[in-house]
Structure formats: C-alpha cells, structure tokens
Records
---
Amino acid sequence: MSQVEPSQVKSPQSVAKPAQKAKRAQKVAAKGDFCLEGRFAGFSAGRKSPFRYLCVETATDSYRVKLKKSLQLMLFRYLMVGDGVRVVGKQTVDKETGQPKFKAREVLKMDQPSASPLQFPESPAETFHEQPKQQPKQKKARVLICQKSACRKRGGKAVCQALEAALGEAGLDHVSIKLTGCMDRCKTGPNLVVMPDKTRYARVTSKQIPDLVSKHFSPNKASQ
C-alpha cells in the first residue's frame, strides 16, 4: 500500500482560496463607473416612487437603473418610450444576490443610440444632470417699527428718524425700515423688531439706536 506524502494532501482551505479569489475579482470587476446606451423602455416602480428605476434596452440585454429623486420627475416629463438614451453612473454589487446594480448620475437623450452600449457616438445629446440642492435664500435685514398712535406718542417717530440716520451713517443701505401696525404691546412702546433675528425691543429711545444698529448690523456681525 502506497503512502501519500503530507505535502501532497491539499487542505480544504487551500482548495477554497482560488474560488474565493475568483469571486472577489468578479466583484471588483463589477464595481465602478458605467456608461450604457440603448432605448428607453419605461419606468419601473420602487417602494416610494413609480419612477424609481429607468428601464433601458440594448441590442443584447435589458437593464434597470436606479434614479435619484432629482432625476425622476425631470425624465418623466421629457422621455418617451423608444427614445435613445445614454446613462452614466455608478455600478455596484448586491451583497445578497451578487448581481450588479446600477445608479444613474446623468441621463442623456440621444437622436440615435449606438449598437454597442459602450460606444460614445457624436450625435447631439440633451443631458439631464442631477439637480444640485438649492441653497436657502438669505433673509433680508430690516427693522420693523410700530407706528400706531400709542407708540408714536411715546417717541416712535423720533426712533424712526434716528434709525434712518444711523443706517445712513453706517452705509447700511441693504437694511430696510418697515413701518408696521400695532404689535399688541402698547404700554411698552415704542416697539421694534430686528429681522431676520426676530429680536424684539420695547421702550426704545432714539439715543439707543446707534448701539442697536452696531449690535445687529456691524461688519463683524455680518461676517459671522
């Protein structure tokens, strides 16, 4: 009976390593950017949107590409079934199934898609990019001054004049003054509100106005 040398016996771990390496290589190959060209075949619904996925048919296969919200409504308005499209985005691998997943970064409407999904034809294209988030508009700086009779009797008019002079001397042309109706604090007039801070002041005198302007609208305050 012949004996087998220990070096000739392959352990289960050594047999499994090539398979594991091949699987890792397959996953790596399936990751990265992709460019897909074909015909628009409609939308496929997701859990929260009927336009969650873009369906694209090529000469050899069909694909389902995930869309961000910013692209969904835009493409729904502009694309018709049968239109030529080029889709550029990110390709990843589903951890559970091992199948490739596609997520669009931009979609181009084309006159004529190429036969191969990876070619870049010279035909004119209309591009639909992911819309950047709009920055919130900065609220205008202004001062609201009550001009009802109770506040005017307590010096509201003089406060308004002092405020106009202080803003002019400081060169704060972007700060506006708005005369308002009653602020329901008649006994503590004159009343004013500094916007956009919504800071309220009561029993304001004209002498306090320069300090108030410096506090809310100084260059150091604006740069913060």
---
Amino acid sequence: MRKLWMTAFFFAIFIVTGGGLAVAQKGGKPTGGDNGPPAHDPVARNSPTVNLGTLGDPEKMRREIEQAQKDALVDRQHRILKDADRLLKLTAELKAGVEATTTEQYSAADLRKLDDIERVAHDLKKRALK
C-alpha cells in the first residue's frame, strides 16, 4: 500500500513540476502546410469551427485555424494542470490518512482515495500522451 502511495505521489510531483507538459506540448503543433492540417490530425478534429465568412481570404482563414489550434492546446494544458493539482491534493490527503493510522489496516475512505488517485493518474497519463 505504501509503495503504491509513493508511486502515485511521485507521479503527481512529476506532472505538477512540468514533466508532463513537455509531452503535452510535443504533439500540439500544427502539422499542415498552407492548406491547414490534414483531416486525420486529432488537433484539427478537436478545434472549433472556422467562421465561414473568411473562405474568400486564405490568409485570414489560416490565421483563424492556427488560433483555434492554439486555443485548443491551451485548454488541454489547463485541463492537465487541473488534473495534476487534483492528483497532488488526493495524494496529500491519502498520505495524511496513512500516517494517522497505527495499524496496517486502512479505512474505507483511504481505499476510496487510492482508487480516485489511480483513476485520475490513468486519465492524466492518457491525456498527456495524446
């Protein structure tokens, strides 16, 4: 139990200190040329739609697409940081609960926090590597 707690704690520290942001920023660059990103690009699929009034001006359309991609990347990074903060909070609460016990048996609340830590860490890892 303590080994699992330590793993979760160090993973939270790694993410909060920016270790996961380098991975998150790696895939966030626009990949297309002047025609925009390709259709199979996940950043383009998740980007907001572009104003149809700019179809006559390719330069303005390209700038709007780039801005939409930047906004999507910032939103993704914000969600990663929010999850990392939640993970750090949960690990701190679990640490306090484990240190407060004198036996090797843990309360149901501590076990629920451990499950939450595992779930948040899994989601965070999946989101950071996307």
